[in-house]
TrEMBL record, chain A:
Its main location: membrane. The chain crosses the membrane at residues 43-67, 79-99, 124-148, 160-180, 186-204, 211-230, 242-261. The lineage of its organism: Bacteria, Bacillati, Actinomycetota, Actinomycetes, Micromonosporales. It is found in: Cell membrane; Membrane. It comes from the Bacteria. InterPro entries: ABC_BtuC-like, ABC_TroCD. Keywords: Membrane, Transmembrane, Transmembrane helix, Transport. Belongs to the ABC-3 integral membrane protein family. This is ABC transporter. It comes from Paractinoplanes durhamensis. It is a multi-pass membrane protein.
From TrEMBL, chain B:
The lineage of its organism: Bacteria, Bacillati, Actinomycetota, Actinomycetes, Micromonosporales. It comes from the Bacteria. This is ABC transporter. It holds the Pfam family ABC_tran. Transmembrane segments: none annotated. Belongs to the ABC transporter superfamily.
Length: 280, 270
């Protein structure tokens, strides 16, 4: 339980710290696609009796770099190429897992939807180390990554190593997807990257504050998700995502109410317009 | 500043550029001297943006040479000396960003990506925003600014890096008169400080007094080079303005800058 909590908290912080750049680029769904590709890595690991986490990192990193290269080309066929990669990834994963010795459905579900209970001490160390690496990269390079995501051409003219930064982001996405696979599962990974950011940006004015609030929401949702799921015996990954979505809705409603009140305050004695019947 | 450079700030020799095999610019030679303000004019689609984007290395050249500050563009590394003002804010805006954050990215060329932002960076951001009259909006999301104010944010971003050369793509397109004046004033101060400016424009408007030299691009070549041409309305048939009171930009571009007899001289001379 403690192990599960630590893993979840690290991912709750790291996923939105990376996800904000994806959202800024309007690539919110890319994490989902890389999650599909990572499943092939899991299958490879199970088949070769190696750690599925390590093979998933490698395969999804290759996939992410491939996607980045397609994006750089900017071809119209890029969208289709991505679709082929994603479906190839998930189909390949299901087939490979099926071929492995431990081909039970439960095993597959554990990677698709996460399973904190089976998190080993070794896993927690891997999650913590990689999670801290992701967090460090995303915060140290925030100005440069912001510049690249905000205006790639300007960043190029500024002489920034745009290609390297893009590859860094692709590899980081793959790493985040893989470590989050243990907590929320490959199918819900993207939600933890995107939903906290989407919730935060409803009330923030700047990039930095969005990142900070998104990380707080991610951390809170992940922590509460583990606690709640243990209490009422639900899947921790899905519970975490539901909680993050609840925060999104709460902020949407709350800020709507505040806006309405403020408008009322600005026009305190606004007279109700008389009901006019336009045409008899 | 740039006065010590033996060569021009931007030197373009026999440049040809195309997209997917279709050549847009055939043979462009252009040079700007330190402290000069050069306007690139031409009709829509004549390749003005292509020209400056090639100079900045965003579009590959098919033939010809480009030097920046006397160094071949291919090996040029001192990008902090160049400030680029694109026509529009980049497409990536899925997350709110404040005016201050956008302008702060103009410091990265000077600072590098490893050093965190320091007091000098913050002071430069404040000074640049003051220069374009937007300091009071520093904490506002850029998406809440008008088109003209966003344009001024972009020039502040370029100015924050203290460049020696400013390259601007249609900085005043779709910008109201007040913003255009603020824009022209900021550019004027930059030029007065010895800075070199290369700008693409459709209508010079309040920028006209700043321009030392105009270059008209037509059919992939330079059709005219010299003093900025007077707007068509000034010397054309007085009825002209009444016949086309709100002529489309495109039309204005063609009738204002299309080659005249004066230009044909140069074209045949080439
Ligand atoms: N990325 C691109 N790919 C293919 N063709 C392009 C691309 N960018 C521009 N072109 C073509 O190159 C030509 C010149 O375009 P460019 O944008 O340089 O013109 P411009 O003079 O800046 O026009 P405007 O006044 O409308 O800004 C046009 O015919 C355009 O269709
Ligand atoms: Mg253009």
């Amino acid at each position: 339980m403690i192990r599960a909590l630590i893993g979840a908290l690290v991912i709750g912080l790291a996923a939105p710290a990376l996800g904000i750049y994806l959202v800024q680029r309007r690539l919110s769904l890319i994490g989902d696609g890389i999650g599909h590709v990572a499943l092939t890595g899991v299958g490879v690991g199970l088949l070769l009796h190696h750690s599925p986490v390590i093979s998933a990192v490698i395969v999804s990193a290759i996939g992410a770099v491939g996607i980045e290269l397609i994006r750089q080309r900017g071809r119209t066929s890029g969208d289709l190429a991505l679709a082929l990669l994603f479906y190839g990834g998930i189909a390949g994963g299901v087939v490979l897992v099926g071929l492995s010795d431990d081909s039970s459905n439960a095993n597959l579900m554990q990677y698709l939807f996460g399973s904190l209970i089976t998190t080993s001490p070794q896993d927690v160390v891997v999650i913590a180390v990689l999670g801290v690496a992701v967090l460090t990269a995303m915060t140290v390079f925030r100005p440069a990554l912001f510049a690249v995501c905000n205006d790639e051409e300007y960043a190029k003219v500024s002489g920034l190593p745009v290609r390297t930064l893009n590859l860094l982001m692709a590899v980081t996405t793959a790493v985040t997807v893989t470590i989050a696979m243990r907590t929320v599962g490959l199918l819900l990974v993207s939600a933890l990257m995107v939903v906290p950011v989407a919730a935060a940006q409803q009330v923030t004015r700047g990039f930095r504050s969005t990142m900070a609030l998104g990380m707080v929401i991610g951390l809170g949702a992940a922590g509460a998700g583990v606690a709640v799921s243990a209490e009422i015996d639900t899947a921790p990954g899905a519970t975490t995502v539901i909680l993050a979505l609840a925060v999104f809705v709460a902020i949407a409603l709350g800020s709507g109410v505040v806006r309405a009140l403020r408008r009322r305050a600005h026009h305190p004695r606004e007279v109700e317009p008389p009901d006019v019947v336009l045409q008899g | 500043m740039t006065a010590a450079d033996p060569k021009g700030v931007v030197d373009v020799r026999h440049l040809a550029v195309g997209y997917d095999g279709r050549e847009i610019l055939h043979d462009i030679s252009l040079s700007t001297q330190p402290g000069e303000v050069v306007a690139i004019l031409g009709a829509n689609g004549s390749g003005k943006s292509t020209l400056i984007r090639t100079i900045l290395g965003l579009v590959p050249a098919a033939r010809g040479e480009i030097d920046l500050f006397g160094t071949a563009q291919r090996t040029f590394r001192d990008w902090a000396r160049v400030g680029y003002v694109p026509q529009r804010l980049g497409a990536g805006s899925g997350v709110p960003a404040t005016v201050g954050e956008v302008v702060a990215s103009g410091r990265l060329a000077r600072r590098g990506i490893f050093r965190p932002s320091g007091t000098a960076d913050k002071a430069a951001v404040v000074a640049a925003l003051q220069d374009v009259g937007l300091l009071d909006r520093i904490g506002d999301p850029v998406s809440t600014l008008s088109g003209g104010q966003q344009q001024r944010t972009l020039i502040a971003r370029a100015l924050a890096g203290h460049p020696d050369l400013l390259v601007l793509d249609e900085p005043t397109a779709g910008v109201d008169a007040a913003s255009q004046e603020a824009f022209a004033a900021a550019l004027g101060r930059f030029a007065a400080g010895g800075g070199t400016i290369l700008l693409v424009a459709h209508e010079l408007g309040p920028l006209r007094p700043l321009i030392d030299r105009a270059v008209v691009v037509h059919e992939g070549r330079i059709a005219y080079e010299g003093a900025p041409p007077e707007p068509a309305g000034h010397h054309a048939d007085p009825d002209h303005d009444h016949v086309h009171p709100h002529a489309a930009l495109e039309k204005a571009g063609i009738c204002e800058w299309a080659p005249t007899d004066r230009m044909t001289n140069r074209m045949t001379a080439n």
